[in-house]
Amino acid sequence: MSAPNKSYDPVEVEALKPEEIDRARDAALAAIAAAGDLEALREVKAAHAGDRSPLALANREIGALPPHAKADAGRRVGQARGAVSQALKKRQEELEAERDERVLVEEAVDVTLPYDRLPAGARHPLTTLSERIEDVFVAMGYEVAEGPEAEAEWYNFDALNIAPDHPARTMQDTFFVQGAEGSADGEAGVVLRTHTSPVQIRSLLTRDLPVYVICPGRVYRTDELDATHTPVFSQVELLAVDEGLTMADLRGTIDHMVRALFGEGLGTRMRPSYFPFTEPSAEVDMVCFVCRGASVGDSGRPCRTCSSEGWIELGGCGMVNPRVLTACGVDPERYSGFAFGFGIERMLMFRHNVEDMRDMVEGDVRFTRPFGMEI
Ligand code: DAH
Predict the structure, then answer these.
(1) Residue 279 assigned as binding residue
(2) CA gap 247, 337 in Å, rounded
(3) 236, 317, 324, 342: which to mutate for ligand 1, most atoms within 8 A of CB?
(4) What total of structural domains would you count in the chain?
(5) What is residue 322's predicted lDDT score, i.e. its pLDDT?
(6) EC number(s) (predicted)?
(7) pTM attached to this predicted model
(8) Alpha helices in 178-221 (DSSP H)
């Protein structure tokens, strides 16, 4: 602000002449009205209401006026500045409202438009359950073993003591890939493995003793797809070969798995059976984890999970046949082994009330999604 100047004549101060103030105000109001957007308005504001605007400069001159002239000049400049700042505020509000309206239109998202991105799939519950089973055994020191799905006949049958005339080798059950049984071309037979048991042979031939392996995998049989059968299904094979293993170890191992997967307090039972690669052999059942046996003989409380039988069949098991050990170069006098082979689809059906096998193979994401990541 300039210092008071005694010889100062207000009439001579150009910036404070009423016409000048009106002119500056009108110019500001016109510029404000003409500002088409907020950016333009910001520039208008700097030019007409900023520190170096004509009205701000005029305001500064007031201090230099003699006292009698101050009031009049002050009122005039003050009113002009007030009018400008009011106009600025009003225009600012108008332009902001316009911008908001425009943004709503320009940036609107039409959620009904078709989109071209494929929705993410979902993990198949069979995969999750397989891994869960692996985890149970890996925690006990087992290793996960693998084998090919197109398997040499020798591994799938011969080494497992399944004789050439065994019914499982006929065309009815087995998908032959090459050199079908009895063909004259002399080629080694290759089949789609009918069970995961050939991984027992591969493990014994490639690993050092003792062997403790768990092997979930896909297997194939010439069944039609229906509610309870599928030509491609999954098994989990277990093999333990060590010194001094008995059927009691097998039983305890299965009991542990059942507890880990289905919960505490569920007993198992073994029924005598026959498999060429185990001796003795058994079928294993577990107590139905839904009714816990309470539905048996009680027609008022039918159980859909076990068909009111009280038991759920898991699969086959037994002590590894010494002929299998011998075929793999393991001394059956020193080593013994136990094994089992359970169907994973069956476990999934029981554990999650999946009623139709087809749901598991058709790949509809609406089936898999509700299982989430952990089951
Ligand atoms: N491999 C048999 C099948 O698919 C199941 C089986 C039974 C596996 C007994 C075993 C076992 O390891 O000991 O029907």
Answers:
(1) yes
(2) 9
(3) 317
(4) 2
(5) 98
(6) 6.1.1.20
(7) 0.69
(8) 198-206
Q: Nearest-5° angle of CA 178, CA 183, CA 186?
A: 80
* Residue 240 in contact with ligand 1 by CB distance below 6 A: no
CA 265/CA 40 separation, integer angstroms: 79
Among 106, 137, 162, the domain-final residue is 106
Provide the pLDDT for residue 104.
Answer: 93
Residue 147 Cβ inside 6 Å of ligand 1? The answer reads no
The H or E element spanning position 150 is strand 150-152
Same domain, yes or no: 101 and 129: no
Q: Is 321 in the pocket of ligand 1 (CB under 6 A)?
A: no
CA 225 – CA 217 distance, rounded (Å): 19
Kindly state the tokens that stand for 157.
Answer: 């049958």
Crossing angle of helices 38-49/18-34, nearest 10°? 170
Same domain? For 178 and 243 the reply is yes
Cβ within 8 Å of residue 94, ≥6 positions away? none
Q: What is the pLDDT of residues 320-344, one digit of tens each?
A: 999 999 999 999 999 999 999 999 9
Give the residues across from 219 on adjacent strands. 233
Q: Is residue 119 part of a domain?
A: no
The pLDDT value recorded for residue 375 is 45
Q: Note the pLDDT of residue 369.
A: 87
